[in-house]
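Board notes (copied after class):
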Amino acid sequence: MYSLNVPVPVEVATLADDLARDLPGARARRRGEHTLVCKRLGDGDATDYHRLEARARETLTGTDPFPARVTGVGQFTAAATGTSPVVYLAVESPGLVDLHGRLCEAFDPVDGLEGGDYTPHVTVARDGSPERADALCERDVDPVAWTVSELAFRDAKRGQSVCTVSLPA
């Protein structure tokens, strides 16, 4: 699966790492793996990737940098894919939601995850105790604000970024 992601600042990754320590037994994201999915682009091989990237770049034309902000801790008690619960940092960003909508017009939304079901978030950890996840969601966190000025094309199969695009695109 290829996706277009928002790289998160070190403050967001550090916050996620700190919160994950309070979820023993959960599978936490490792340092450097924290991202914010903007839109899944599709499955395929390297040939498909170039076609997907070109189409995404065309959709990104005219996209200016936009603000984003971590506003708290949330969870998916029953994740649409994979194991649960999923504890995450909630992200508020009208610009990201608008961009996601434009990309959903160019690429089919993934049922249960995108379109009207899209929840901008940075995953902290999966699995673990539902009680500890509930408790963590009650915790207040200091907001972390940043300007999204770059997006990364990511290959989930290999767990790495393929290339980036700077905004304005």
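Comment from the instructor: The chain has a mean pLDDT of 92. The longest helix spans residues 46-60.
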